[in-house]
């Protein structure tokens, strides 16, 4: 928790309060529906909250931006990002109903007004978004196939709309064929060995 304050000094008292509540809410819900591994729940601020917020180090979403979190599970990276950007509209989608139940309970517990949840496969969504965020869902070729056509062409940001994906390890092979991909090592932003191999992959929308 202290780490989060340190890396994001401009958080308001309300945002800090909400982030503080996260551990209790997940510890409680995780006993009923397992969405976070046991080892990770003790390190929820580093492994889930801070990891999710790495995306905020790459891009500050403008107010009014529409962001889709694909395969959100229990709400990562969507929930921490929704706390960080209260004026941005987040849609969190997962194909497993009980995971979305946890998302709904956490959203209610934190009184987040900017989060909508959807229990479906992303392929079935018709809407378009400015950005798609995700972590640990599918290899990039499968993922980009699933979300094809779901990113709006016009951007209000200084960069093109696109995908911000949290990935680990050597991505050389997986990202072959994605010439416009940019890779941001998270250890450049947060000093914790957990982030040693972790990256944010930014994939701008293709024309
Ligand atoms: C390994 S979990 C990751 C959960 C979360 N993103 C995290 O990092 O904690 C992958 C999630 O993706 C969901 N998922 C897989 N394929 C999906 C699809 N096509 N549409 C929506 N959700 C999907 C699964 O149900 C699962 O909850």
Characteristic terms for this protein:
alpha/beta, Rossmann fold, binds S-adenosylmethionine, globular, 7-stranded mixed β-sheet, 7 helices, single chain, 207 residues
Summarize the structure.
Belongs to the methyltransferase superfamily. RNA methyltransferase RsmG family. The termini are far apart.
What does this structure look like?
Its main location: cytoplasm. The chain has a seven-stranded mixed beta sheet with strand order 3-2-1-4-5-7-6, with helices on one face. The termini are far apart. The longest helix has 20 residues, at 13-32. 35% of the residues lie in helices and 19% in strands. With 207 residues, the protein is an alpha/beta fold. The mean pLDDT is 94. The chain has one domain (2-204): 3-Layer(aba) Sandwich (Rossmann fold), CATH 3.40.50.150. The protein contains seven helices and seven strands; from the N terminus they run ααααβαβαββαβββ. Strand 1 (66-70), helix 5 (78-84) and strand 2 (89-94) form a beta-alpha-beta unit. The structure holds S-adenosylmethionine. The site of S-adenosylmethionine (SAM) has 17 residues, from strand 2.
């Amino acid at each position: 928790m202290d780490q989060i304050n340190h890396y994001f000094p401009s958080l308001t008292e309300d945002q800090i309060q909400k982030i503080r509540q996260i551990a209790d809410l997940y510890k409680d819900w995780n006993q009923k529906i397992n969405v976070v591994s046991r080892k990770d729940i003790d390190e929820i601020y580093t492994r889930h909250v801070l990891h999710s917020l790495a995306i905020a180090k790459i891009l500050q979403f403008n107010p009014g931006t529409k962001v889709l979190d694909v395969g959100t599970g229990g709400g990562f990276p969507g929930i921490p990002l929704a706390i960080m950007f209260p004026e941005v509209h987040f849609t969190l989608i997962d194909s497993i109903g009980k995971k979305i139940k946890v998302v709904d309970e956490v959203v209610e517990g934190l009184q987040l007004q900017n989060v909508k949840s959807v229990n479906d496969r992303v392929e079935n969504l018709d809407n378009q978004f400015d950005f798609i965020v995700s972590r640990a869902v599918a290899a990039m070729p499968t993922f980009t196939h699933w979300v094809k056509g779901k990113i709006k062409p016009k951007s209000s940001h200084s960069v093109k709309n696109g995908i911000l994906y949290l990935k680990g390890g050597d991505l050389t092979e997986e990202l072959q064929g994605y010439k416009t991909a940019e890779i941001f090592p998270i250890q450049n932003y947060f000093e914790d060995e957990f982030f040693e191999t972790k990256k944010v992959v930014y994939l701008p929308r293709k024309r």
